[in-house]
Write a structure and sequence with these properties.
The chain is of the alpha+beta class and about 625 residues long. The chain is about 35% helix and about 15% strand. It has 18 helices and 15 strands. The strands form three sheets. Strands 1-6-7-8-9-11-10 form a seven-stranded mixed beta sheet. Strands 4-5-3-2-13-12 form a six-stranded mixed beta sheet. The protein has a two-stranded antiparallel sheet with strand order 14-15. Helix 12 runs antiparallel to helix 13. The longest helix has about 30 residues, at about 350-380. The protein is elongated, with a radius of gyration of 33 Å. The relative contact order is 0.07. The model is unreliable at about 1-15 (pLDDT under 50).
């Protein structure tokens, strides 16, 4: 059961870190106040506070400025509570998740733009308080209910009332303690969750002088969240409780792994066809402005691409997955790690024998899976993919990282390369008019078909990761869809900013004596394929008008249909032979203008096109 307590979805404010505090207050108001007043000692105030055994009066929790409190519904005294910072509540959407047990409470944090710079939009934090019982599993919440991992990041933390060697390696455990705690830890590792506590760092200091300190407060993060866990620590002073506060800090990792990309070759075209049959683009604004036209195109294209990506499986289930991996290998890996954990706790000859046997079986299965996958790949190799096989067999040469003077980190290197390859230019003049051009010819599906026929399916895609093959399938299913999306842009002579965003791939030039200069590298710019389709349509129309308006020299051979390098060579040979017949000596001078296209004066070029009579919508 969920209870939404905020509906804000503005995630423009970026939190440098996401601190979460966990503490057992022993039902004391003094401990509660001491805990919250100690937050001034942290570098960043906590955004979530998970409390076990909170103080209450008639099931009402205490209040503290800047926080909102939530607890499972009555009856009974609340055993767990979560306090949410109002700062977090103002920028992200949150919801409480109630469970069957009153000793368990979750909060979901949602951001439409993704959390921690990742594609994950949700984060679940679960606070638990395990009470002792007389029936298996001898705690109030079973491990299967605790560690049922959602597909998004999940953090489980609280007072587990468990003793385990992985959390407290110096403690001597009874057989009963070890049996009970092992069931929870095995369930966590099989899910899989990662144990966040630093081994040997005590979280429970009993009031009596007979019992020794131990670790009862535990924290677990699933695989989707583990890369965002920056630290687990106990930096706060004592609050008067026999437990110490634990602080888990989440923040984006220094190196973000690329998100999974759709496997477009497995796109379900039948399902896409059914979805596209009822899909219609939004009506174009009646009196458009650059901002409204850009917003209209972004919404329409996002709706279309979301249909495509929803019917394509992920190319890689996770950033570290391998194409040769199988469920059998996952089962063998779990078995090997289970035997390894048992042998560390009980290093008997039988346990070590099980470890060696399971390890041998696991690594032998990996080698067999790799060999079988490589054999299948070679058996299906084509003349185009044989070079991929060669690269796999011999490996790629190591890439050279730019060693530029004055650039000590990747951000400074990127800034230096941007200034070199894309020097700043004055902004274009504002649009004098933004209306539909009268001489505009509507875009037809045949023009889009011709533009797509000239596009290679193997060309690298841009930020949207959608190849030309997908757009060819979409155009084949509904020929009127792409023209209805691109026609208003051409009619108003407008190119939206979203189509100008690109990926820049920096490649080193081979054979350079040193790589301490940006000129030793080159940049490949990858635009969105939808932008390239629109560019091909405009280029085709501009090429036709260039011939009519005499914009091209009669001997121009490059970038023209029906002409190639052979024609230029034949023209040169003709002139040389003509002068030789007249007994002249002939010399040829070849010029290569460096950065010619990058340094064209746009105002002069646009003025020339207008004087020559080119259609205004193409000039714009």
């Amino acid at each position: 059961m969920e209870n939404f307590f905020t509906r804000y979805t503005d995630s423009s404010a970026v939190f440098p870190s996401f601190p979460i505090v966990q503490h057992n207050c022993l039902g004391s108001w003094d401990v509660f106040l001491s805990l919250f007043h100690s937050f001034t000692m942290l570098p960043h105030p906590p955004l979530l506070v998970a409390i076990q055994d909170p103080p209450s009066r008639r099931s009402v929790l205490p209040r503290f400025p800047g926080f909102m409190s939530f607890t499972p519904p009555p009856p009974g005294r609340p055993r767990v509570a979560i306090y949410v910072s109002r700062t977090l509540n103002q920028h992200l959407s949150c919801s409480t998740v109630f469970h069957e047990s009153s000793e368990m409470l979750s909060v979901d944090v949602f951001s439409p733009e993704g959390l921690f710079g990742s594609p994950h939009r949700s984060l679940r934090v679960t606070s638990v308080y395990l009470l002792r019982t007389n029936r298996p599993p001898y705690r109030s919440i079973s491990p299967e209910r605790l560690f049922s991992p959602p597909p998004y990041p999940h953090l489980v933390l609280g007072d587990f009332n468990l003793h385990h060697p992985l959390a407290d390696p110096c403690r001597s455990l009874s057989e009963r303690e070890f049996t009970i705690s092992t069931r929870y830890f095995d369930a966590a590792f099989d899910a899989p969750y990662h144990h966040l506590n630093t081994p040997g760092v005590y979280t429970w200091f009993p009031f009596d002088t007979i019992s020794r300190p131990s670790v009862l407060d535990l924290s677990f993060a699933n695989t989707a969240l583990s890369s965002f866990v920056s630290s687990w620590d106990t930096p706060l002073p004592s609050t008067g409780s026999d437990h110490v506060p634990c602080v888990i800090t989440l923040r984006p990792p220094a190196i973000m792994l690329p998100p999974p990309t759709p496997h477009w070759t497995l796109l379900d075209l039948d399902a896409v066809g059914k979805a596209l049959a009822t899909f219609t683009t939004l009506p174009c604004p009646a009196r458009p402005t650059p901002s409204s036209m850009s917003r209209w195109f972004d919404i329409s294209s996002t709706c279309l691409t979301s249909i495509l990506t929803s019917h394509a499986p992920s190319k890689r289930p996770c950033p570290r997955s391998k194409p040769w991996w199988s469920p059998r290998l996952s089962s063998l890996r779990r078995e090997y790690h289970r035997f390894a954990r048992i042998s560390r706790l009980d290093p008997s000859p039988l346990n070590w024998s099980n470890v060696r046997s399971s390890r041998r079986t696991y690594f032998k299965a990996i080698a067999s899976a790799k060999k079988a996958h490589w054999s299948d790949f070679l058996s299906l190799a084509t003349p185009r993919s044989v070079w991929t096989a060669k690269r796999f067999a011999f490996g790629r040469p190591p890439q050279r990282f730019p060693d530029l003077p004055g650039a000590s980190d990747p951000a400074e290197v990127a800034e230096t390369l941007l200034r070199h390859f894309f020097p700043s230019k004055p902004p274009p003049p504002p649009l004098l008019r933004f209306t539909r051009y009268e001489d505009y010819t509507p875009l037809t599906s045949e023009e889009v078909s011709r533009a797509l026929s000239k596009s290679s399916n193997t060309s690298a895609s841009g930020p949207d990761h959608i190849p030309y093959s997908v757009w060819k399938s979409v155009h084949r299913i509904r020929p009127s869809l792409l023209p209805s999306l691109l026609d208003p842009l051409l009619a108003h002579g407008f190119h939206p900013p979203s189509l100008k965003k690109a990926l820049g791939i920096v490649l080193d030039k081979p054979g350079k004596p040193s790589y301490d200069s940006p000129s030793s590298f080159r940049v490949i710019v990858l635009l969105r394929t939808l932008s390239k389709i629109l560019e091909r349509v405009v280029a085709s129309r501009l090429s036709a008008q260039a011939t009519i308006c005499s914009l091209i020299h009669p001997l121009q051979c490059g970038s023209l249909p029906g002409r190639s390098t052979a024609d230029a060579a034949l023209v040169l040979h003709h002139y040389v032979e003509s002068f030789h017949r007249l007994r002249y000596k002939v010399s040829t001078l070849f010029l290569d203008v460096k950065g010619g296209f990058d340094n064209v004066e746009s105002p002069s070029l646009l003025s020339l096109l207008r004087r020559k009579g080119v259609s205004p919508y193409l000039v714009q």
